[in-house]
Amino acid sequence: IKMKMPDAHENVPVEEMDSSLGLSPSVDGPSNIDSRELGISKDPLLFIQLNELLGWPQALEWRETDIPQITLSIPLYHRWMLFEEKLEVGAGRWSAPHVPTLTLPSLQKLRSLLAKGLVLLDCPAQSLLELVEQVIQAESLSPELRGQLQALLLQRPQHHIQTRGICWGSAHPKKASHDENIPLKEQGQNSLRQKLPPGAEAAAVLAGELGFLAQPVGAFVRLRDPVVLGPLTEVPIPSRFFCLLLGPPAPRRGYHEMGRAAAVLLSDPQFQWSVRRARNLHDLLAALDTFLEGVTVLPPGRWDSTARIPPPKCLPSQHKRLPSQMQEVEGLSRARRARTEDRDSHEPHKPTLELQRTGRLFGGLVQDVRRKAPWYPSDFLDALHPQCFSAVLYIYLATVTNAITFGGLLGDATEGAQGVLESFLGTAVAGAAFCLMAGQPLTILSSTGPVLVFERLLFSFSRDYSLDYLPFRLWVGIWVATFCLVLVATEASVLVRYFTRFTEEGFCALISLIFIYDALGKMLNLTRAYPILRPGSPAYGCFCQYPVPGGGLRETGRDLDQVRTDDLGLVNASLLSPPECTRQGGYPRGPGCHTVPDIAFFSLLLFLTSFLFAMALKHVRTSRFFPSVVRKVLSDFSSVLAILLGCSLDAFLGLATPKLLVPREFKPTLPGRGWLVSPFGTNPWWLTVAATLPALLLSILIFMDQQITAVILNRKEYRLRKGAGFHLDLFCVAVLMLLTSVLGLPWYVSATVISLAHMDSLRRESRDCAPGEAPSFLGIREQRLTGLVVFILTGMSIFLAPVLKFIPMPVLYGIFLYMGVTALSSIQFMKRVQLLLMPAKHQPDLLLLRHVPLSRVHLFTAIQLACLGLLWIIKSTPAAIIFPLMLLGLVGVRKALEWVFSPQELLWLDELMPEEERNIPEKGLEPEHPFSGSDSEDSELMYQPKVPEINISVN
């Protein structure tokens, strides 16, 4: 038997676990207790194995049978995955993991046998022989039966050990030899051992039927010190528990079922916690009775007992089944917390450490530097992992795509004042500097849609009033840097506490839609550059012009009818191909001469192929195909493989699709200007003061864009160990704003989508997981090197033009669409939008819908949709100059929702603002208990899976 629970939540308060799994929206729920606060030591993992005696009355031998697959014994406030694997004897393999089911009589008989049998707690035996001798001596048996029973118990069991085969890495069961009392060589080679963490312990359950026994023999032993019991277990690790269940032949394999019952009991976290601390038989039976109280009985006529229940998506809370000792400790802890709340009830809301005001000028910045400085060496050492290599490739291609796309858009918006070269250079300089000095180096700086909109508006204003654009832009950048430094000095970053999920989802949805819109818009532009030729279209026109006497040109047309004549073999000079026309001294003229009608459709094919292939590979991680290592590699390199596939298709067909344009010369796009922008140019002097107005609006936009992204990246469910740096990040952005303005480079701020993709590519997952168990989310690999290498490669991309020029642009647009869709589909807002289109009976069983009326959920979603639509309309109109104010207005809209929705509804629909959080303990506001019975069914309760994607949603 082997059952397992992920190590991801070790020493993590329950409030953090629950918020990351989406089980409860409460800020300070009743289960917010740290195991260290309760004084509970972490129990080691327990590997449980059931050996059954087979062969009576012929040759007797112990064999492994049903194996409920791995159990972990960790503090009680962790979640447990209890799956069973049954050995398929005919097929020679283990079955798919499934939930173990027991018969009620087997539990009752087991209790009766343990009550009358032998119970040894803290047995001092140091070997299997000593253990068997102590058990046999305590039983009231004749000397002859004792000898037979001892010889039988010392007989080597027949294990089905899974070892790696030579051919194709297959697994083959191997049988053990018979005459040794030490662990077998095959036991050490068992692949299952790699999944057990150091310090794991074993429990052996022996069950069977013997004809020479007149009465049952039952024993339960807890060893004082774990000891390796020879080859008794499949994996040679120290054993802590030993359970013996023997008796005369019984109908329906009664002892086999009792052995399964004992194994499943030991795999139960509450029973195991109690039996490890039991002092006598009464405590053992009390733990078994507690297990029986939680058993659910299925009627035999309504359920097939041979059916295998697949593992659930999420497990019910163990809170109700806590042992009485644990409930007493929890009560004391809750009382202490209540006294603390009473003492602090008149104090203001206490934010996290990064968002606490110091009351000193630049105090927050100083605290960020002090907090991040000790982690600086590890920020580079932690990057020495193969996963970082895949992250570099993924984010490099995403950054290059973003730089090229936004560089092209910026070149169109500024009429060549800035272009792709400035985009490459600015991305490299600003991004590398930010990764070296920022408080959160996982953030990726890039051009963003809102900033691009502001650049377009600023250029239009300069052109309409005959102003010199780059000097005017320089003064705007100087004032923005000044305003941002003032915000850093006054610790304005603490205001991000008012950015709830309502604001974050609206902003993230807008950015994702900009990504999707730009990707689709670029594809439409390709169809205009390479039009689809239809019969009768003017694009079919192609003329071969020949010189005639007198210096003129004689035109011979080529139309659809002549092409049909050409197919009949009637060829004349007017139907020559453009190359042939040139060879005969003519000149091809017309839009159809150099147009390949297949490029538009093939570009669309490349676009959809890269997008769909990247999406498919991203979901391979949770599929059933391939080993886990292969699935992880395919998922991590999804975008890289999609780009390689698109390039391969393009190279195979050889069509002249538009390729990636990388500048080959290092000089500004705008002819005649240097790398340093003159502060005045031809503009009047008073423009330096007038620039404060657009600079104020841009400062609001930069602050909102930067800090919302920072809040999203530093959420608790991502389990970042090294902390955030809100003040330090804004300081770095301000300095870089000044530098890029002086050099005439684009302005850069944190890119939400690419930063989330960066974190997603660096997430850590548990490796010692049982079959059928999804890897548990351990956190993010926090370091600075991946971002630094990405931006260095971006700067060197100018010199990689011979390689990058083969990448088709439609493939990059497909990756652009992939990034926008994945970010948009991950937020809870989109799931509530889907509820608008679902009949009530087909809606998923979301925990949100159990506490908030459906009409109120739809009203909240409609308000978010209206705000998003208003933001998009303003962004797309000449009034886009007030776009930053509208982003700030989302906070005001969220504050106004307190007049429309009750605090209880906002608690489930969104998050509470600091003033509201102070009132959470008030009666009627906090849910009764986040893990009530109605909330623990195996249903789609959570917005996030067990191994969460890097997404925006909190619950």
UniProtKB/TrEMBL annotation:
Domain of life: Eukaryota
Domain Band 3 cytoplasmic, residue spans: 46-163, 185-305
MF-aspect GO terms: sodium,bicarbonate:chloride antiporter activity; sodium:bicarbonate symporter activity
Transmembrane regions: 391-411, 423-454, 474-499, 506-524, 599-617, 637-656, 685-704, 725-749, 785-804, 811-830
Domain Bicarbonate transporter-like transmembrane: 360-914
UniProt key word DNA damage: no
Topology with respect to the bilayer: Multi-pass membrane protein
UniProt KW Metal-binding keyword: no
InterPro entries: Band3_cytoplasmic_dom, HCO3_transpt-like_TM_dom, HCO3_transpt_euk, Na/HCO3_transpt, PTrfase/Anion_transptr
Annotated GO biological process: regulation of intracellular pH; saliva secretion
GO CC annotation: apical part of cell; basolateral plasma membrane
Subcellular location: Basolateral cell membrane; Membrane
SUPFAM superfamilies for this protein: Phoshotransferase/anion transport protein
Keywords recorded for this protein, A-Z: Cell membrane, Glycoprotein, Ion transport, Membrane, Transmembrane, Transmembrane helix, Transport
Main function: Electroneutral Cl(-)/HCO3(-) antiporter that favors chloride ion entry and efflux of hydrogencarbonate and sodium ion across the basolateral membrane and may participate in salivary secretion. Also mediates Cl(-)/HCO3(-) exchange activity in the presence of K(+) as well as Cs(+), Li(+), and Rb(+). Does not contribute to Cl(-)/HCO3(-) exchanger in the apical membrane of the upper villous epithelium.
Family affiliation: Belongs to the anion exchanger (TC 2.A.31) family.
Protein name in UniProt: Anion exchange protein
Lineage of the species this protein comes from: Eukaryota, Metazoa, Chordata, Craniata, Vertebrata
